[in-house]
């Protein structure tokens, strides 16, 4: 009896543990590097058409020569341009009957979970982007990517805006590994619904905190429980983080763009006056009841929908909204404005968009030449992907000639102009010290994060946000110091004493610090 | 040749041992597939998790550093871990009694042979079980929104003075998730209860009726004691399932607002697979999962011991 009881307890225990051991399905780390190298070699041998075996002049592979049907596997998370991508693939396969494109679109999180397993099992897709959070240096060290230079034509690189290339982002030394998806632009400007503002009697587009708060209050009062001042995807902490950083930068604060680290006066800049002002504005909007009550329950795409349905006057998001609204809400009467600034503050700027690595060719791809050909088509005018995305307002292309010709969407032009006028390039530690890659691999998230604190303010779970910011600043400073020490980087490298937020941070500025 | 009594006894014992061995062999043979799958898909991952919990590892690179029990030490001082830990048990405490009671009530009603269209009702109550959690989540966010139909109906009926933010208010978010999970999962437990109820002989009902017991009395004094052992198993399953709740929380609140609905599974997921600055922490997340699993086992053992002592003392 006792044995049976112990047995049943053990069974229940095993069920409980197994239910919580989901992480265990991940691959083992033991000697992974060595194994990877071995499996890469084996994979190459099995494929029978390694990079070295491609035709040196034409780039043709053994598969081409034999007239085999080739399947190129492409995986990414570009949901904003899904329709254009589908049209591109259709056209590409029509013109390349020997190639089948197997395209999988995942969410950012799904991609992060999946790609590691695919690569560890040697089944990585031929073309895929770097997961958010991983640096190019780390990905290359891990054997994820191979240089694309040997497979692309010489004039291919000349199509690109030189600003879309950067060491540690697209290149390592002389090798070109990834192509960025878009020209970086600000991820946070304020869209406004002209009809909603007009109905509420708001005739001037607000530019200061008090004007913004007043406009939101008027809209909310006039909305009678159906229309509110501001809406956003509050369920996504990253969106809350972006909004807080942008508001703080517009207030004159020295703060890095989202996911990046910079220090001001030796400390993580979360407890600065500018950040407190930014969060003070959000708290004020909450007190006024001006934030759409569903904000805290919804994600960014859902907020975008409700804004378009006229449930709020303002939305803090990026350029990607424009194409979606033009397709689904052609009658939406909207515009875009700069991030509001505190009263009396002038000549301040938000963080300009930062270049980030995106798509590259898998190191063990059996078809690197075909993969490179796909990339050349993707970044060409001829196949229409870049031009249709620019025309629709989905993004600003990394190919300037396409932007000049196809940027016809008025709101997109307005967004681009406002972004150019109100943002400045901020320094990045990766450009200053190569050890920054190790730092980003080492540093750990400090929780509750800035995004979580904003979420706490909106849901009214946090009453004393000053204390929360102070703790975040202290904990982040301690963690950043620890991470610097762990990778042998001077903590001082996180601070840029010659950074003037009113000016773009240039190569000369980096040079001054050497 | 005449065998002595001892020899005969020993031969009989030998035959019994051989039969037992044969029986055991067959048992093991039938268990091999299940045990094999268990070891492959549960045992191995558990062992891997134990290994990972001793590493400082993102899960994305080959650079894994052995840190011993450092992850566990850090967990002890992590307020958000304890918040998720507590939320998991609060969720369990709220949902298990509700789930057991509601599903038993439904099962008892549907076990009545006189009830017309029983199979239609059974199907109706079971449909939420087979509906994907993400679909349920999206629909419920719409239904329970401040401007959604639920608030609209409640305010129109003057049951609420003003709309309630069911998922956006830290006070209501977890109870709201409990109600939704209850609706979604009670079909499963209803089936378990039905299996138990159908094991109760008709003679028992007839005897109770002859003795003058009404339907309520029959249930509480006759049926319930008979199906209590089944209830124990259902309670264990329900408790285990509630402690590993993930999909509905992830879809509807992502653990928010401000960690109010953060349970261990969402905490583990967040640490294992996402990060705002830098890399995720698979090693740390594994430690959290294992620590929680260990704590559940420990609590179970303690409660079981207490229960046995109480039973002996009575």
Description of the structure:
The complex is a heterodimer of chains A (about 525) and B (about 325). Chain A is built from 21 helices and 14 strands. The relative contact order of chain A is 0.14. Chain A has helices at about 1-20, 30-45, 60-65, 80-95, 110-120, 135-140, 195-200, 210-225, 235-250, 275-290, 300-310, 320-330, 370-380, 385-390, 400-405, 410-420, 430, 435-440, 450-460, 465-485, 505-514, and strands spanning about 70-75, 100-105, 125-130, 145, 170, 175, 180, 190-195, 230, 310-315, 335, 350, 360, 425. Helices cover about 45% and strands about 10% of the residues of chain A. Mean pLDDT of chain A is about 85; it is low at about 15-65. In chain A, strands 3, 4, 7 and 13 form a 4-stranded antiparallel β-sheet that branches. By secondary structure, chain B is an all-alpha fold. Chain B has 2 domains: about 5-50; about 85-265, MetI-like fold, CATH 1.10.3720.10. Chain B is built from 12 helices and 2 strands; from the N terminus they run αββααααααααααα. In chain B, strands 1-2 form a two-stranded antiparallel ribbon. In chain B, strand 1 (about 55) and strand 2 (about 65) form a beta hairpin. The radius of gyration of chain B is 26 Å and the shape is flat. Chains A and B meet through helix 1, helix 2, helix 5, helix 9 and helix 18 of A and helix 1, helix 9, helix 11 and helix 12 of B.
């Amino acid at each position: 009896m006792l044995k049976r009881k112990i047995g049943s307890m053990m069974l229940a225990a095993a069920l409980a543990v197994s239910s919580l051991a989901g992480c265990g399905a991940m691959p083992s780390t033991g000697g992974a590097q060595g194994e990877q190298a071995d499996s890469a070699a084996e994979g190459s041998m099995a494929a029978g058409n390694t990079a070295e075996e491609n035709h040196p002049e034409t780039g043709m592979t053994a598969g081409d020569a034999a007239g085999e049907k080739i399947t190129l596997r492409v995986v990414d998370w570009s949901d904003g341009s899904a329709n254009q991508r589908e049209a591109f693939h259709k056209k590409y396969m029509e013109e390349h009957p020997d190639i089948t494109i197997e395209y999988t679109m995942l969410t950012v999180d799904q991609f992060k979970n999946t790609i590691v397993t695919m690569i560890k099992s040697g089944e990585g897709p031929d073309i895929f982007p770097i997961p958010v959070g991983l640096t190019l240096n780390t990905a290359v060290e891990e054997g994820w990517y191979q240089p694309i230079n040997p497979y692309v034509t010489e004039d291919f690189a000349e199509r690109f805006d030189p600003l879309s290339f950067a060491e540690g982002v697209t290149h390592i030394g002389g090798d070109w590994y990834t192509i960025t998806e878009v020209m970086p632009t600000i991820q946070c400007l304020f869209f406004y619904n002209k009809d909603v503002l007009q109905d509420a009697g708001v005739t001037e587009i607000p530019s200061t905190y008090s004007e913004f708060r007043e406009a939101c209050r008027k809209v909310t009062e006039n909305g009678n429980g159906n229309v509110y001042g501001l809406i956003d995807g509050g369920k996504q902490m990253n969106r809350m983080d972006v909004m807080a950083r942008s508001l703080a930068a517009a207030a004159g604060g020295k703060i890095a763009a989202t996911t990046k680290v910079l220090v001001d006066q030796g400390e993580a800049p979360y407890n600065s006056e500018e950040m407190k002002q930014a969060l003070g504005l959000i708290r004020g909007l909450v007190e006024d009841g001006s934030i759409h009550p569903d904000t805290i329950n919804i994600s960014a795409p859902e907020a975008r929908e409700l804004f378009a349905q006229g449930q709020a006057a303002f939305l803090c998001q990026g350029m990607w909204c424009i194409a979606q609204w033009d397709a689904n809400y052609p009658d939406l009467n909207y515009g875009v404005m700069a991030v509001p600034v505190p009263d009396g503050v002038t000549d301040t700027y938000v963080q300009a968009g930062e270049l980030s690595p995106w798509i590259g060719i898998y190191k063990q791809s059996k078809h690197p030449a075909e993969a490179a050909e796909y990339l050349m088509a993707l970044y060409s005018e001829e196949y229409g992907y870049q031009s249709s995305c620019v025309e629709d307002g989905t993004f600003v292309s990394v190919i300037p000639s396409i932007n000049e010709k196809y940027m016809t969407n008025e709101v997109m032009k307005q967004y681009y102009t406002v972004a150019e006028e109100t943002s400045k390039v901020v320094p990045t530690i990766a450009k200053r010290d190569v050890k920054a890659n190790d730092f980003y691999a080492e540093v750990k998230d400090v929780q509750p994060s800035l995004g979580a604190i904003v979420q706490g303010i909106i849901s009214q779970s946090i009453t004393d946000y000053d204390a929360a910011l102070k703790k975040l600043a202290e904990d982040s400073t301690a963690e950043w110091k620890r991470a610097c020490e762990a990778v042998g980087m001077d903590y001082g490298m996180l601070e840029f004493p010659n950074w003037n937020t009113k000016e773009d941070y240039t190569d000369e500025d980096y040079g001054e610090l050497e | 040749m005449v065998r002595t009594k001892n020899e005969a006894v020993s031969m009989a014992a030998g035959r019994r041992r051989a039969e037992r061995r044969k029986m055991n062999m067959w048992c093991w043979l039938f268990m091999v597939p299940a045990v094999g799958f268990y070891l492959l898909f549960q045992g191995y991952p558990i062992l891997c998790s134990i290994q990972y919990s001793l590493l400082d590892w993102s899960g994305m690179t080959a650079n894994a550093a052995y840190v011993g029990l450092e992850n566990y030490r850090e967990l002890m001082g992590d307020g958000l871990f304890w918040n998720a830990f507590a939320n998991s048990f609060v969720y369990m405490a709220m949902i298990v009694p509700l789930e057991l009671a509601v599903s038993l009530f439904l099962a008892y009603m549907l076990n009545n042979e006189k009830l017309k269209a029983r199979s239609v009702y059974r199907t109706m109550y079971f449909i939420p079980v087979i509906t994907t959690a993400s679909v349920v989540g999206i629909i419920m966010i719409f239904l329970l929104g401040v401007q959604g139909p639920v608030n609209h109906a409640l305010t129109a009926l003057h049951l609420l003075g003003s709309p309630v933010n069911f998922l956006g208010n830290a006070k209501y978010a977890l109870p709201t998730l409990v109600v939704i999970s209850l609706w979604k999962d009670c079909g499963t437990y209803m089936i378990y209860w039905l299996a138990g109820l159908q094991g109760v002989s008709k003679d028992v009902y007839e005897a109770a009726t002859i003795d003058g017991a009404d339907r309520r009395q029959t249930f509480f004094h006759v049926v319930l004691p008979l199906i209590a052992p089944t209830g124990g198993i259902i309670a264990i399953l329900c408790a285990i399932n509630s402690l590993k709740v993930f999909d509905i929380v992830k879809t509807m609140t992502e653990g928010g607002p401000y960690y109010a609905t953060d349970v261990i599974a969402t905490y583990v997921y967040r640490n294992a697979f996402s990060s705002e600055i830098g890399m995720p922490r698979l090693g740390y997340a594994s430690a959290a999962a294992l620590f929680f699993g260990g704590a559940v086992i420990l609590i179970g053992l303690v409660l079981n011991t207490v229960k046995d002592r109480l039973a002996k003392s009575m």
